[in-house]
Amino acid sequence: MAEQARSTRMSTITDVAREAGVSVATVSRALRGLDRVSADTRERVLKVAQELDYVASPTATSLASGRTQVVGVVAPFLTRWFFASIVSAIEKSLRARSHHVLLFDLEDDSYDSRLSLSQNMLWKRVDGVITLNLPLDPDEVDLLDRLNLPVVAIGTPIVGRPLVAIDDAVAMRQATEHLIDLGHQRIAYVGAVPDNVAHVLTPQTRLESFRATMREHGLQDQQRWILASDWTADSALEHATELLSSNDRPSAIVAASDEMAFGVLRAAAVLGLSVPDDLSVIGIDDHSLSAVMGLTTVRQDVQQQGVVAGELLLEALLEGRDLDESQQVHVPTEVVMRTSTSAPRRS
Amino acid sequence: MAEQARSTRMSTITDVAREAGVSVATVSRALRGLDRVSADTRERVLKVAQELDYVASPTATSLASGRTQVVGVVAPFLTRWFFASIVSAIEKSLRARSHHVLLFDLEDDSYDSRLSLSQNMLWKRVDGVITLNLPLDPDEVDLLDRLNLPVVAIGTPIVGRPLVAIDDAVAMRQATEHLIDLGHQRIAYVGAVPDNVAHVLTPQTRLESFRATMREHGLQDQQRWILASDWTADSALEHATELLSSNDRPSAIVAASDEMAFGVLRAAAVLGLSVPDDLSVIGIDDHSLSAVMGLTTVRQDVQQQGVVAGELLLEALLEGRDLDESQQVHVPTEVVMRTSTSAPRRS
DNA sequence: CTGAAAGCGCTTACAG
DNA sequence: CTGAAAGCGCTTACAG
To answer: Which domains, ranges and CATH numbers included, belong to chain B?
Structure first.
């Protein structure tokens, strides 16, 4: 019997009920471990369910219960280290609690733009959503409100929602002070973004923190040493090459991300500058390639951020806990010194 | 009325039917663009649906129609370049055809192992699945058969299923011959994996192709120059450092992946060897950081692989086309020469 | 061209 | 502790 069910089609709750000699309601209760079922009955139902290879249809369960056990994870793009790492952490942490990840990569084919969150992406399809460094426009916030979905933001804040992130100002202060403590005074910066992405907070916050830290230490940041970059290694390479080719070079560069730091490292290598003798370089992230590159950096624990965000959302989903802006989790960062920084050469 | 519906709850097909003065069956047909609906009726229904902000409940649609519009994408891990890139490509290509990606990252917390595909991950939850470089054990293939799901494999083949991949043997031949054509004879290799992962084909195929190519050109591959690596940059760095520290050095190294090539590049830099003067290095992939690193490599078009796999699956889902082992799509590869390779120094 | 009704496979009060 | 029945919100023959 079990064999036959197995070979023809997957069985339904009705099959289990018939085979166990009880009603479908009882099967439902027994399988979900609800209270009012006798030990005897439960055992029999479980045994039959196993024999029949029964797994409840998630789609039927969703329709009846109103919950999908699916969480939407929305990213502005996926191919950068931070995003892939955090999606991985979220997926594992949710699956450990029987939830699944429906993935949305909003990166558009047309350069420099992204798709909008839309109702038919989310409506009745997910129980909640986690956003990754995603500044939402008012319409999107509105949509989330109307859909009445629990949301947890990672990285970039969303009004009225919990946030899990590192403290960008602190991280940049750590990077900058690492250089200053080493004795550097001539420090350049890579990672100033164009005005049209001013709505993304992280770049702004890091740059401001760099400037504030320099000021506090009585150092001047020269505008000409604040390099633009779209936060890719390529653009950092380009701009750093220009800066480092000039006669008046900084003794150190802080890059607002490790990927940009890779570009700086490469610029130095191509120009024949020795790191850290001629130039110290520090980044922020602890990218998976940073150890290999010997890059000193400010490490952020991406995995932890994913796990914390997942737990917050699950608390809302499973225990009905309210989510609001008051819940701000800042994950600590720390300097990891490798071989790309040292005291400046006496000149 | 529309306003009220909007502010209180999302509307259902019944709301639209009532408001438009037709039956739910007619709404269903009109909205899905089916034949037998008068232009008048259709127009009215569409208008009302829009006013009410109606979006069909995917979960109800799934239960009634038997299709979820969701595709499972299963990866052994996510945080490496290839996987993140291809997931991104798949997500976009599927979403363009109204399908969504349910993501499974099988990487386990316990090092070196992965989770099994299980019935409750897939059963009634997805219409089909795409596997990424995932060697399946017999039980998993069996499960896929019982579930009767269309499957497309990327990278690593699965018995009885279509495959989208590059030709590993050709790619490695291209890499090796690039070096040979440049005049190299003393060529080392990084990327031999331990025996316990012998079921993953790519590493085996690439190594065999390296050896065959060397042989064909009358060159000997010394066993001592075949370096082990778990395919991370770290382990390549470690083994390359050892090799390059010896007196008897190769003039070139081919790495079976760009990430490993990064480790080799770093080893050379740390040891003060100049690339390409003292050592030529070539990889396979064209990783997003390869251009910045100046790495010569054999490019594979990951995006295209994702798109092709998505289309194959959609043909099966939407047009009922059968999928089987006979469908093998090999995406072409090509050498991209940058600054990490050159003719060997005359010695 | 349109509607009434059954059905998809569950969950959830409500009785008992 | 257990069952009968309604309901979740759609789709799909079947009539007309």
So the answer is: 2-65 (1.10.260.40), 70-166+302-331 (3.40.50.2300), 168-301 (3.40.50.2300)
